[in-house]
Amino acid sequence: MARNLLKNPSGEEQLEFWELTENGGSQWKVEDMPGDCGYDLCYDGVTKYFATSFELCLKRQVIDLLEEGFSLEQLDAQPPVTVEDWYSGRSDCGCTYRMTVCLLDENHEVIQEFKPDPVTLDPDCDNCFWKQISHTFSNYGPGMRYISFEHGGQDTKFWDGWFGVRVTGSSVIVEV
What we know:
This protein is mainly beta. It is 3% helix and 41% strand. The longest helix has 5 residues, at 72-76.
């Protein structure tokens, strides 16, 4: 059952399956690679990405692990949970990237959280290549029933349009 539990991780279905928790500025937009970013992501057939705007844009999926076919016994054995995401900026405008992933119990209470500090990309000193972030949860105790995956960001110059961080190729894998 080692499969990506996120639906529409790269925008092939526009914003379908994503809850837009913040949709500021010119709002979320799906663009084709390489778009204004300038670089293709040579990863698993990814051809699109989600672009953010000049105010905060965040989107989330909450995965129901029992609905996805996992048993209580499998989940209570604390299987490794690996989350990955790809992000990049543009060559003409800085941006910030954010990610928060939470393992949740049956009441949607947080068991364990991965929330790295926001990343600021500055085109004057950072290249615009795609960057990957990855984390594996382990030894988090029994009771995981849901996983919340949220990511996004915005640009740093408050320009109208879609000059913020780009995200794509996201994944959540429970290794049983």
